Amino acid sequence: SRTISKCYVQVTGMTCASCVANIERNLRQEDGIHSILVALMAGKAEVRYNPAVIHPAAIAELIRELGFGATVMENCGEGDGILELVVRGMTCASCVHKIESTLMKTNGVLYCSVALATNKAHIKYDPEAIGPRDVIQVIKDLGFTTSLVKKDRSASHLDHKQEIRQWKRSFVVSLVFCIPVMGLMIYMMVMDSQLSHAHAHHNMSTEEMEALHSSMALEYQLLPGLSVMNFLSFLLCVPVQVFGGWHFYIQASRALRHNTANMDVLVVLATSIAFLYSFIILLVAMAERAKVNPVTFFDTPPMLFVFISLGRWLEHVAKGKTSEALARLISLQATEATIVTLGPDNVLL
Prior knowledge:
The protein is α+β, with helices and mostly antiparallel strands. It has 10 helices and 10 strands. It is found in: Endomembrane system.
């Protein structure tokens, strides 16, 4: 029969149920992985695997290749087949040997190591055959006092501060360059509206309209086919495309490498098409030395990146508050419990 082990992996960068499904679907196809369960809000994946085929570090690397952050949670598997106890009352190596030999004879205990100097016992057991309370009882029957080692309950892996900083930076960069682009766009819309109004009320010919339109400062051609408006829009769009969209491009490329499409692929597709189309049209107009300036869409990528990065930033802020509440709840877990055993007729034993 196959030996199935379990590990926990901290996963960052997940935004929705699609990310969860993406991780679970891809990892189930890998050799050695028996099952995987991903929790979106907890940012954690529980993986059952065959240690003879794959190990936790390789599982984390598979998740990273899908475009997410992943680190193996070393202490999270404690309590699931592994037990650490503080043992009091040991005086010599004979006590250590007595505990180890008795536990190793106990059905379900796979491994036992007791350290006299630190008063600690490290025990590996089969959860299907024996439980932690049974192990503790065996040691108590030998005349020693024992208790569980206190674990860190801070739930620090639920922190979203890094993602909040990342998306805030992306939003600010996009916004700085988007405001001038929007200003130029609004100015052009107002001027076009005024020209249309003048054309309707003064019976201007089409030639007169084109001449008036081309006399506008932003429509002045620096080079044949290259207007001031298009040149400024291009200069403002490039930093947003590179720095504001950096995280989108990384996530989208990783998704496409695994033949999947997510929200990042959609964003990159929309912004890249708008940018490349505008750039190519501009080059064609310059090559043809066009007198009429081409219609470009350099304003589209900055506006899309601003709104989407703002949404991602607010999303992680909300997640951070939820995770903070979850972490506080986890920290309130009782570290000790009183076991009440009832006999026949519910009489306390």
